[in-house]
Write a structure and sequence with these properties.
The protein is mainly beta. The chain has 4 helices and 50 strands. The strands form 12 sheets. Strands 5, 6, 7, 8 and 9 form a 5-stranded antiparallel β-sheet that branches. A 5-stranded antiparallel β-sheet has the order 17-18-47-46-45. Strands 19, 20, 21, 22 and 23 form a 5-stranded antiparallel β-sheet that branches. The protein starts with 18 loop residues before the first strand and ends with a helix.
Amino acid sequence: MVALRCAMSKTVTAHEEAISMVCCSIDSRIMLTGDTTGVAKVWSVSELTDTCGKTTPLNILFDCHDMGVNSADISTVTTITNKGKVYSILTCGNDNLVKIWQLTLWKKNAGSHQCAVIMVQSLKGHSSIVTSVCFCGADATLFASTSMDKTTRIWRMVEKNNAVCLQVLEGHTRYVNTCGFSQDGLLFATGSNDKSVIVWDVKGHFDLNVKLHDSSEDLKSTVNVRRDIQVEVSLREKVMFTNAVNSCDFSNECKYLVAAGSDKTIRVWNFDENGRFEECKDSPLYAHHYSVQHMVISPCSLYMASCSLDGMTVIWDLNTLKQKGSLHTEYGGARSCSFSSNSELIAVACDNEIIFVWKIETLQLVAKLSGNDEDVTCVSFSPDSRYLMSGCVEGHFRIWSVHPKKHIISETSTIVYDKAHEIGITCAHFAFKNPSRKPRSILMLTGGNDAMVKTWKLLDDRIDFKMKFVGHGSDITCVKFPRHITTFLASTSLDKTARIWQTKTGDCLHVIDPKDAILTCCSFSSNNKILATGSLDKAMFLWNLPLDDEGATSIRKSTSLEAYGLRLNDDDRRDLEVALSKLSSSTDTPDEFICPITQQIFRDPVICSDGHTYDRSAMMSWFRRGKFSSPLTNEPLVSKSMTPNTTIKEAISVFIQQNRQRK
């Protein structure tokens, strides 16, 4: 155990008015303070920490910033000249300005210092108070500023006394208060009064012709959350509506995609064998007088149901897109609906604290379930049709027993779980944990207004909490398991993102950020390779998910020596690395075996969209630095797809064996 003991060195009355900022150089030689009147002072740290030393500043900048100094930063990069040690300093204030200063420090005698400060440049651009400034530690010519004008500006010194604004970052909805670069200069973070932190991917070198790459560029990204997990998600399609999209769902066999929203319409698309889709000729469908809150396709893919705030639930024939019938609740609007797994029952959750259950074939009311003391927000059948769950605005859920063949539902709930989510449950979904094993345990997903996703295990009329998934910044709007598997799950939130999670560990595998769209719903296609998300900004997005072809059971993992069927134990891996290192230094290694980026022999050769072959790890690093051009031709890449070059890989294996035999 390490104990940290702090002792007060000295108290100095530094300013006549309130001190608004303080910063210290990385070498602990100088300290800068500023106050609310606009005065900044430079101090010698050694003289401040000497209890017998002077308490007068080395320099006073009376007109640093009118109306107050808000922030300052001292560059970690310094130079030594015949005049002394030279520091670069940034300051900002209530005058909407960023100022660059040059400070030269030298020793006056053994116990004291002197300094000279000159202003290099005053930068205009922000339209309101500048709240913070910071240097990029990895690049002393690059710096940033944030402002109450809701923007962040990235600047660069292009000449000795000339800084220019490279990029204006707009992502926050309220004042931007603070910012900072990562130590390697690859990431840049901003914090705001809108309660959010945005991490910007700097990825590369700035000049006057290069833009910052942020998380929304091209609506595609690659994220390495853990060393052994890599996910790449790309936008497949964007479909516009006339109003918010509230719900979406895929049919089995991925034949149909349906979506509905606040414009009272229901739209239906048909997929062909090649994955192309087009809207059906009878779409959109009209049946409701108010916003369609939820819609779902039956497991048998014969029906779909839509429920609305008008209190009506409509059952549709999915093949003909004609109404089979309409179901009316008593008072209040219909919020959520769910088909049983055998497609024989449908349950509807209502504003009036009641859950109605109808038989699909006859449209006969089977049960009217009460017991909730507040509005029911979601309802869901278990995958074996033996349980029906409801969640409410107070945060607890109830589970009723169902006889799947006789359609008998218990009058009272067999399970009641209080405070599953502190401030309300918004959505739920069921799936079998291990469909082939008996007894078959069931996993239940819930999302809530507490910004959390939770998993629960249901077995033999008992439910146990399993795990919570933390990462969203606002209310969860939808949670879904993929079809027939539970290795991962998806969630959408009012924080304008969708997230893909690993069920077993709780790791967030990927964050989907479709640029300022508040996401309301999600659904997996039957092969789990497409994720649909709806949003309040009148758009539905279809995302390609990179899943393994064999069973589509997990998000693809990526490692240099274990990808695409190559399985090595530790000894074999070491032998291979030794052999590759020897070959890399060999003068007779064929040029086609050498990666043009690393100039080393390929470990994992892949063909990129420019037609050239590179090492996978080198291209991943290339993309992480924000480069989306061909490393060889400098032309823009069509996509970030990488195809294994098995020909080169096999040729290298043969070459390794031949090289060993010769030795």
